[in-house]
Amino acid sequence: MSNRVDATTIILIRHGERDEPNPADPDPHLNELGRARAQTLIHVVGKSGIKAIYTSHFLRTKETAQPLAERLSLLGIQIDAVSDIRNDILSKHTGKTVLVIGHTDSVPQLINQLGAGRGVNIQNGEFDRLFVVTVFSSGRASLTELKYGNQS
């Protein structure tokens, strides 16, 4: 018998493009570019074995998740606090692949809390970065950064 080590794979992205929030609309929907990026996500990670999709309470994260979630017959898991997302993933999805759709602040914070490094900074106009964090049973983690969809 082998002592296989299961790794947990966390794919992290920022939500798709949206119009700028303003006092009249602090939680804007995705715009046309954002909706197209959400569809691209199906092609990019649709066959990666995702077992759970995490979003925040904001419409833009839920709308980014919706096409992929429908394709995979998954319900989104809405959690806002980064430490709660980390704990939920590591306690309920060990050895599996999950997707987290967050924001310019929460994605780097979660990468850091998963032990995959500091220094990730997402600019306000960046929507095409995709991060893959692999957390091994030893607690060690690795980070891979990719791009997806149209360049932003």
3D architecture notes:
The protein is 31% helix and 24% strand. It is an alpha/beta fold and 152 residues long. A six-stranded mixed sheet has the order 3-2-4-1-5-6, with helices on both faces. Helix 1 (32-45) packs parallel to helix 2 and helix 3 (82-92) crosses helix 4 (106-113). The chain has one domain (9-16, 26-94, 106-147): 3-Layer(aba) Sandwich (Rossmann fold), CATH 3.40.50.1240. A hairpin with a 5-residue loop joins strand 5 (129-135) and strand 6 (141-147).
Topology record:
Layout: E1 8-14, H1 32-45, E2 50-55, H2 59-72, E3 76-78, H3 82-92, E4 97-102, H4 106-113, E5 129-135, E6 141-147
Parallel strand pairs: 1-4, 2-3, 2-4
Antiparallel strand pairs: 1-5, 5-6
β-strand percent reads 15-25%
Runs in which pLDDT lies below 50 for 5 or more consecutive residues are none
CATH superfamily: Phosphoglycerate mutase-like
CATH architecture: 3-Layer(aba) Sandwich
CATH class: Alpha Beta
Order of helices and strands: EHEHEHEHEE
Number of domain units: 1
Distance between the termini: 48 Å
CATH topology: Rossmann fold
What radius of gyration results from the CA coordinates? Answer: 15 Å
Count of alpha/pi helices: 4
Proportion in helices: 25-40%
State the strand order across the main sheet: 3-2-4-1-5-6
Sum up the overall morphology in one term.
globular
Look at the structure and give the mean pLDDT.
94
* Beta strands, count: 6
**Class inferred from helices and paired strands:** alpha/beta
Largest sheet: 6 strands, mixed
The quaternary state of the protein chains shown equals single chain
